[in-house]
Amino acid sequence: MVKNLANPRQNKGDITEDSVSVFPKLDENSNLVPELTEQIREQITSVATLENLNTFADSNFLPEKLQSTPILLAAPENFNPALRVTPKPISPLPQKLPPTANKPVQPVLVLESIQTGFRSELSNSEQQNQIIEPVFQFRLLNGQKIRLKTGLNTFNQPGFEPITNIPFQVGWEGKTGKYTIQAAAGIDVFNRLPTALNFNAQIDRPIFVNFTPTYQLKSGLFLSALVEQSPYKFNAKTLENQITALRSGLNVYWQIDPNTSFFSLYRVGLYNDDNFEQQSFSRLEHKWGKFWLAANLFTWKYANDRQDMSGYFSPHDFLVYNGEIGWGGDIFSFLNCRLNTTLGQQQLNGKTTGVNSYQTRCTAKISPNIDLDFGYGFSNVRNLDTGDSSYNNKTFTSQLQVKF
């Protein structure tokens, strides 16, 4: 539910070279509550090596040999041409011109990677969303990035004709000083609904950072601000009613020490059906080797309950808190897996019930340039008000990343 950005993948505990910050890039196609903790954990709790932290690619901050991306100066430094008058030689000697080297012409745009994500959500209310979205990432000569995203998404729900969605979006990413800026805009095309516009923007900045002698992140504080507008891809009914949402918010990530981190986000949303939402999420995590323990707190409030009219889960008061334990490590030299489970409680409009979830995700190294992620998750955290009836959601995910 909270969005941004292509979804950067973690590989054996390190943020990949495609990451732009320690902040998670959440997808509007994801129903936030059950899967948020895994997305957050994968992308912010393993800020492991300096070379993978593009956020710190600042010539005034890091030694040149440690920068993950080259800094191209707008103009040469310390270049002061002067005119010199020299006597004309009486007998000019023939000069040998150095052989001209045929330098290869560098292309303006280079394809860096293709990342194809798959996600299938199925609840016990027979509501199913299936998302397939490839992202093509290009790098410009100046280090900036261009991303093209498309896809084929389907939304099925009893009582409604299936809806097919094809998104088209063009994004840009660049740096200025210590700021990383992202912006994207596009359209959503539907098989039987009007075309809708979408856009998002995000700015990230490190406040302070400290490294260990081996150049791993020791401590640091990072801030991010974002805004987005798009169709609310909650289910077929919500799309049928052409619900759109404009959201904005802040992210804070605090690396307390090499093994302890804190993450928090806050969002506000305005809907075109005159609804208003607020949501927050906080997570405190500590790692012991390959294991971790975490505490999660999530709150969600809407001004009006529009579930019957508009189709989306919109509680007046929703609270989830749980504890989490997990493990991550190599099963084989080519296979890295992560498993976690949570146990806690949820409170919906004053009624408290127990909640639990479990998730597993593995990364297979197919070749030096090809990675395949696949995972499964189960949760009974509510994403729909079903009254006294039970609710659960199953999620299958996979992602294929090809680097060039």
UniProtKB/TrEMBL annotation:
Region of interest: Disordered: 1-20
Organism, scientific name: Trichormus variabilis SAG 1403-4b
Protein name in the entry: Porin
